[in-house]
Amino acid sequence: MAVDPSGHDLALFLAGDADEPVVMLNLLRFADGGRVLYARYAEAFAETFTRRYGVQLIYAGDGGVPLVAEDGQAWDAVVLVRYPSRRAFSRMVADPEYQQITHLRARALKEAVLQPTRPWGATG
């Protein structure tokens, strides 16, 4: 299962307004021992990239038992992160320092969804 965006995915993501803010929904399913690795990733991320790229953590929490979902659609954790623009997200994932920590995220997860969102009523 994919846990990181590919170059093709990023190109589609940037096909929208590159200066548009985006809130990224992260649905996370951890591998064995993944919570510890993800915590290391999140700590390194917060120390460097929130300030450098204007990233804001909106919410992070454990997933509960789904009230409405098909089998296999429960997630271990949910994270909402606001990026000031699609371009900032793209620049961040290409940053050499980010590349040094992304292996922690990849090893921590057995499955993930990264879903860019936009407010209702936004044009484009």
Any idea what the radius of gyration is? 15 Å
Order of helices and strands: HEHEEHHE
Largest sheet, described in full?
4 strands, antiparallel
Helices, by number, come to: 4
**Mean pLDDT rating:** 90
Give the neighbour order of strands across the main sheet.
2-3-1-4
Distance between the termini: 30 Å
In percent terms, what proportion of residues is strand? 25-35%
Q: Count the E strands.
A: 4
CATH architectural arrangement: 2-Layer Sandwich
Q: Strand pairing plus helix content: what structural class?
A: alpha+beta
Our count of domains comes out at: 1
CATH topology: Alpha-Beta Plaits
What's the CATH first level?
Answer: Alpha Beta
Shape: globular
Proportion in helices: 40-55%
Protein name: DUF1330 domain-containing protein
Pfam family, one: DUF1330
Organism: Dactylosporangium matsuzakiense
Domain DUF1330: 37-111
